[in-house]
Amino acid sequence: MSESTSPSGFKASQLWRDNGWQIDGGFGLSPAGVLFDNPTGPTEQIGRWVLPGMPNLHSHAFQRAMAGLAERRSKADDSFWSWRETMYAFAAAINPDQLKAIAAQLYVEMLKAGYTHVCEFHYLHHQPDGTAYAQPEEMSLALIEAAREAGIGLTLLPVLYMSGGFDGRALSARQRRFGHSVDSYLRLLETLRAHESDDVRVGIALHSLRAVPELALRDVLASELAQTGPIHIHIAEQIGEVQDCLATRGARPVEWLFDHAAVDARWCLVHATHLTEAETLQLARSGAVAGLCPTTEANLGDGLFPLADFLDAGGKLGIGSDSHISISPVEELRWLEYGQRLLSRHRNIAARRQGDSVGETLWRAALNGGAQASGAPIGALRAGVRADLIVLDDSSPLLAARDARSLIDSFLFAGNTPLVRDVMVGGRWQVRNFRHRDEERIAARYRAAVDTIGTH
Length: 456
Ligand code: ZN
What we know:
By secondary structure, the protein is of the alpha/beta class. The protein is built from 14 helices and 17 strands. The longest helix has 18 residues, at about 95-115.
């Protein structure tokens, strides 16, 4: 099997299916890179342990290049809000070519870590002074091109960002790059929908309740363009945001959103960190996905999501690398569990029934929730689903003497050596033997691009 051509089908000693491991399973691959059952053509043995690739449901690609630049104490109460100052300075400096270079490098790193699809929550729309580019979708197209170069699936979520706070204040100078009216936003959305393909979906993102006034929220959700595709929103990430929402709107953010929008399975509530018991139940029952970003939430000092109560209520979750302080589904899921252990001083929190595996529970939940939030047919090894898969390194000592019962727990919890050996997206190999097919060129361009940003 070469890097650029698709096999007609594959087999594996152990395939992670909807109900657990299947021994000696296999699939055919359609020319469009979709799985089908009972292939008649030649199939290739691709490995011992084969899992569906993980969707990454929350990314701000440009932030990859500032990872590590906000770890020096600036004042006694450093917080999300002081981190945001560094982020704004960085956001002001990036042009479309740099964005493409950063995003392509990020997406290569995602693929090598086992992410095969990314939801890009994209608000860096305009020129630094806030005027639109000659082609208003130029920054969005940079992300689409980067995803195609790297070979990762993309759900592009252009962001509506209108005000600088719950009181409706105008955007600050540094927020002007992000801003849209409802009309210009819907025009952008319409333009981008014309770029949809098997690998590129376009959904809607509302930056947050503080950045989207009530009327605008209503207008966008009522538009024809909002009747299909996923809808994402940042919500309840910070206590300050909850307090401001209570003060200006008389309700907590999640409570307010449910009172003003028909939140259902098309929605992804990103972070949803600070929830009351009633909000936790409401979110779980709505069928919406909680978009959790544990390494970013830890890095920013956000707080901890009420995982046990949410899972007990049947809630759906997925994971995102968000600020890209870490690019690893293993680390996201590990920290999701470890945060809960530290808080509760107990173990095995995500596994809600006796005998359940934490690793399997979390990997499966994040696959299902991530696929739902992506609005794409991904996240499973099943006929009709896009052929996104990862092959683990069965020669690694970390997986020695592991069987189907212990494999995913060891993959998630047993060390820091990368175990993702090969990665396929849409039926095509993007990573083989730990190397992405174009990683040298993409990394060289990234180095040149970040050298010219000049904010460090
Ligand atoms: Zn975010």
